[in-house]
Amino acid sequence: MDASSTIPSTRSTAPRRGRVRPGRRIADRSLRVACASATFVGALVLGSILVMLIVEGVRGFTPALFANPTPGPGSEGGGIANAILGSLVLTGIGIVIATPVGVMAGTFLAEYGRGSKLAALIRFLNDILLSAPSILIGLFVYTLMVRPMGTYSGWAGGVALAIIAVPVIVRTTEDMLRLVPGTLREAGAALGAPPSKVIMSVTWRAASAGIVTGIILALARIAGETAPLLFTALNNNSWFSPDLMGGVANLPVMIYQFALSPYPNWQGLAWAGALLITGSILALSIVARFVIKPQTAR
Amino acid sequence: MSALTETIALGRPRAAAARRGPSRNLDTLFRAGAYGAALLVLIVLAGILGSILYGGWPAFREFGFGFLTSSAWNVGTEQYGALVAVIGTVASAFLALLIGVPVSLGIAIFLTQLCPGWARRPVAMTIELLAAVPSIIYGMWGLFVFAPLFARFVQIPVSNVVEGLPIVGTLFYARVPSGVGVLTAGIILAIMIVPFIASIARDMLEQIPTVLRESAYGIGCTTWEVVRHVLVPQAAVSIIGAIMLGLGRALGETMAVTFVVGNANRLSASIFDPSSTIASRIANEFNEADGLQLNALMALGCILFVITFVVLIIARLLTRRVKAA
């Protein structure tokens, strides 16, 4: 429908004596109030979540939290140091795998694949993968790695997180590369640089802030992922070991298991972990916003 | 874009082909790497489908079509059916849309039409941060903060009022008002999908030319009339796409739902009663499952795959069509 066809219908409800009819005014007021309250509710929920995390979690923020591994069921003391370290390693593996794959795939879509059918298909499937249920990715990696290897492992967890991160990076990389003006590429080609050289030294460089933002966003996305880790890295109460075979402690699964446990000590640790992980992710998201801001003023 | 860029983008330019060894090899290698990485996306998606089909096949073979229509889930007798989980998944996602869509559109309209300029950025950021909060935190918030309040101020009073009444008495009666259940899951899911739908809807509303809006205001329309007769018709298709995208997320959401849905395998007509969704059942039972139970869980995964991917494909087609126009 275009605007011209809407004009007669609004005219028919227009006031006759120069004053806004009460019905129209009430409809308008209610819309304004409803929209404002919807936004208020959204902000309220975020506020409520943050207050809950701080009230419940701040108590647990002691030096011991960062120095000790998770305690056994029902025992006192302990910390979440192993889970923090494990989470860092798992997200690290995820991002290290996902960054080259994602950036290269995004580069293919933006630089080599313009107008090709295959690229269109991959772009479409990537968008779908972007919102695919993460639990299915967990099942996939379980079948792919955990089953054949016969044990839960940190590697499987890292791969699962990588699969979740890749579509995010592909999408932002492609979007950012498309913003780079074609004249820059032409200038590079005119100097005799082969396409790969043009991409690496000209387009990537021009889009670097945007690509980094994509990687940070992917990091924020996978740092809190729980479902795929349940079937891949699982959890572990012992100290982190550099051998990643067997269960690897990580914050999300630790929070899941401890929060639903009947032991107050475990619950306290879960809250502290929840505060830590949410704080880090929100900080990452805010940082990402400020990295991207100077480049895409839209 | 000019023809020169097209050559760089699509073909191997002659100039590069004429160059000496190393640089040309690097070029081919780089191109192959990019190609391979892109293909990997395809392979992963095929792998996801393949792996859960492979894992779920024994269950489908054992129960046949009855797997879809049976509400049994009995580890002892090895009888498994998907009905309860499928209904729970669809019901919670539907409730999430019912609650989440009006709220998301309200936020989008507020941000684009009503919000004073200085508040726009901070408010938009607050809503977007809601999308960054991990799903497990929503689960904890839902279980420890929201569910007790919900039980006390909604479930118990409503149950008392509707008890014994026909239809509403079954639909809104909580046998055990613990605060968890399908409706609670729906509300938490609604909160989780609101930022996604709101941010896409906001982008779509912003893309509508200002002239259209201003001319409507110019002939004396109220904000409501501008929204109803100008903005909504313009952005309708892409907003429906955004809603489908939110639906896709709601269907597959796992951790938050696992906390608040109650994880009961019971077919109940009341939206206050605990139930299960496909994702919550997989998350709950997978680690302790083996044999046929594992296959049945994988088969549930297949059903989830089919449902979400159909929804997501429709969503992407709808949002894409508008972008191209």
UniProtKB/TrEMBL annotation, chain A:
Residues 84-288 form the ABC transmembrane type-1 domain. Gene3D superfamilies: MetI-like (1.10.3720.10). SUPFAM superfamilies: MetI-like. It comes from the Bacteria. Coiled coil: none annotated. The chain crosses the membrane at residues 31-55, 83-112, 124-146, 152-170, 206-224, 269-292. Keywords: Cell membrane, Membrane, Phosphate transport, Transmembrane, Transmembrane helix, Transport. Residues 1-21 are annotated as: Disordered. InterPro entries: MetI-like, MetI-like_sf, Phosphate_PstA, Phosphate_transprt_permease. It is a multi-pass membrane protein. It is found in: Cell inner membrane; Cell membrane. Pfam families: BPD_transp_1. Residues 1-13 have a biased composition (Polar residues). PANTHER family: PHOSPHATE TRANSPORT SYSTEM PERMEASE PROTEIN PSTA (PTHR42922:SF1). Belongs to the binding-protein-dependent transport system permease family. CysTW subfamily. This is Phosphate transport system permease protein PstA. It comes from Methylobacterium longum. The lineage of its organism: Bacteria, Pseudomonadati, Pseudomonadota, Alphaproteobacteria, Hyphomicrobiales. The gene is pstA.
TrEMBL record, chain B:
Residues 86-315 form the ABC transmembrane type-1 domain. Gene3D superfamilies: MetI-like. The chain crosses the membrane at residues 34-60, 80-111, 123-147, 180-201, 296-318. Pfam families: BPD_transp_1. Keywords: Cell inner membrane, Cell membrane, Membrane, Phosphate transport, Transmembrane, Transmembrane helix, Transport. It is a multi-pass membrane protein. It comes from the Bacteria. It is found in: Cell inner membrane; Cell membrane. Part of the binding-protein-dependent transport system for phosphate; probably responsible for the translocation of the substrate across the membrane. Belongs to the binding-protein-dependent transport system permease family. CysTW subfamily. This is Phosphate transport system permease protein.
